[in-house]
C-alpha cells in the first residue's frame, strides 16, 4: 500500500461542489493493522501494477513493450499473465476507482472482470498473504457494486469472486486466495466497516 493521500474526491451530485472527499480503503485498513513500510517493496509493487495494467490495456498484450520492461519486474508480470489465464479471467476494468456512497469510502480495484459466469474482483499482490486482504476485497466488491450501478452494471458483491493473487518473482503460477458467498461477505464487510469506524474515531480525536 502506497503513501497516497488518505482522502480522495469522488463525484457527489448532492454536494454543491459536485464532489466529496472519502477515505481510501488502504488508509482505513492501516488504522487497524500493522503494515511495516518497505520502500523498495512498495516501489516494486507500484511498477508491477503499472506494467500489468499496460499488459491488460492492450487486450492482446500489445499495450506492454516487453523489451522496455525492467528484468526485475518481468517475472511478476509473467506470473500475473499465468494467473489471469488460469482463471480464464475476462478483464473488464483495470485500476478502477470505486466508491461506496452508502458507507463512504473509496478504493482502487486492480481488476474487475468475469470468470465463468460470475463477476470477480481481483487484487494483485507482490508480497505475502495477510488476514486483512479478505476485508480489502470485500470493501472493493461493495464499492464496485454501488459505483458501477450508475453505469448499468449489476454486480452482487456477495455472489462475486473476491480473489487475491500473490505474484511470483520467478514468473511461476501465483498463489491465490479466493472468497465468495453471502455469509463470508457479510462477515468481511462488517469487519472492514468496523475498521472504518476506528479510522474515523482516530481522525476525529487526533
Distance between the termini: 22 Å
Number of strands: 7
Catalogue the unreliable spans: none
Please state the CA-atom Rg, rounded to the nearest Å: 17 Å
The run of helices and strands is: EEHHHEEEHEEH
What is the makeup of the main sheet? 5 strands, mixed
Q: Roughly how much helix do the residues carry, as a percent range?
A: 25-40%
| Binned strand content | 15-25%
The gross shape turns out to be: globular
Which whole number gives the mean pLDDT? Answer: 94
- Counted by DSSP, the helix tally is 5
Strand order of the largest sheet: 3-4-5-6-7
SSE-based structural type = alpha+beta
Overview of this structure, please?
By secondary structure, this protein is an alpha+beta fold. Helix content is 39%, strand content 25%. It contains five helices and seven strands. It has a five-stranded mixed β-sheet, with helices on both faces. It has a two-stranded antiparallel sheet with strand order 1-2. Strand 6 and strand 7 form a beta hairpin. The longest helix has 23 residues. The radius of gyration is 17 Å and the shape is globular. 35% of the residues are buried. The model has no long low-confidence stretch (mean pLDDT 94).
Features:
5-stranded mixed beta sheet; 206 residues; alpha+beta; two-stranded antiparallel ribbon; 5 helices; 25% strand
Annotate the secondary structure layout:
Elements: E1 7-11, E2 19-23, H1 25-30, H2 39-57, H3 71-87, E3 90-100, E4 105-115, E5 118-125, H4 133-147, E6 161-166, E7 175-179, H5 182-204
Parallel strand pairs: 5-6
Antiparallel strand pairs: 1-2, 3-4, 4-5, 6-7
Helix pairs in contact: 2-3, 4-5
